[in-house]
Amino acid sequence: MSSSAAPRYVLAIDVGGTKAEAALVDDRGVVLGASRHRAKTGADASSEQLASAVRTVVTQTRASLPAGAALVGVGIGCAGPIHLREGAVSPLNLPVWREYPLKDLVAALVPDLPVRLRMDGLCITLAEHWVGAGQGIDNLMGMIVSTGIGGGLILGGVTTSGPTGNAGHIGHIEVGGFDDPCACGGIGCIEAIASGPKTVAWARTQGFAGESGEDLAAAYAAADRSAVAAVARSGRALGQAIASAATLLDLDLVAIGGGFSNVTPDLLEFAREAIAQRVQFAYATRVRVVPSALSGDGPLIGAAALIHRAELVP
Ligand SMILES: [Zn+2]
User: Fold this and answer.
1) Which residue, of 70, 86, 118, is where some domain finishes?
2) CATH number, position 113
3) What is the arithmetic mean of pLDDT over 185-195?
4) Ligand 1 center from residue 19 Cα (angstroms)
5) pLDDT tens-digit series, residues 158-171
6) pTM for the whole thing?
7) 182 CA → ligand 1 middle, Å
């Protein structure tokens, strides 16, 4: 077999509020299962514990490279905000890391390889475009609706990072008619209204007795009145935020993933109804809102795409 036929892998890393994860991803966007390693992070961890978690998963994953395979680079997706020029990160939910030099930490472990860093929302959008619901779509927003709400943008066929790396952070768009205070300092941000925990918290003010997104999903399925009201409220707010983004950016498609996006398919239907109210703006109401077509591997596949599909990441 010639060397040109050897599998080419990227070492992909995803750093978030609860875990750091790494895996090898090939040039078709497939994760090599045996190379996948994770380590706990968390808001209580020290800076050195977080760094150690990243070092551990990178070292373990690199050691999983099959004989004869090529390792062509390292892609890192991290919870925002990030500092693109400095290769540093300040994840909102990892408070001990502020302007932490994550790219340098990783580069020191792999001095022979190119390393690229982007926000996790941009990475999942790249993954949707590569192997998910956004294939062939040039104007795309990827969204995660989970503990928080994040996103990323592909406009005109290439990703938009912005000068600091934080473009596409849809979670902190303010939504009309809501005054929920947000951790970022804003009032009525979509994350403060429609994340999983915030939706559950609002439902509880209406008499809902459950405590988790799973409880809310079950209550919605049983037509519980407070659960239905809460899901409708969050779905409408999501639709308002998406309509604002579509009005600004002229989007073809929004692909929505994340644990809470699966609370019921009706969540996206409520969003579509809110978008449809922009009756005079056909260019905005044309936006299609669809569920993510990615598995849980999306963040890692997208981090790998920073190298495998580098032409989309200027
Ligand atoms: Zn906010």
Assistant:
1) 118
2) 3.30.420.40
3) 97
4) 23
5) 999 999 999 999 99
6) 0.94
7) 5
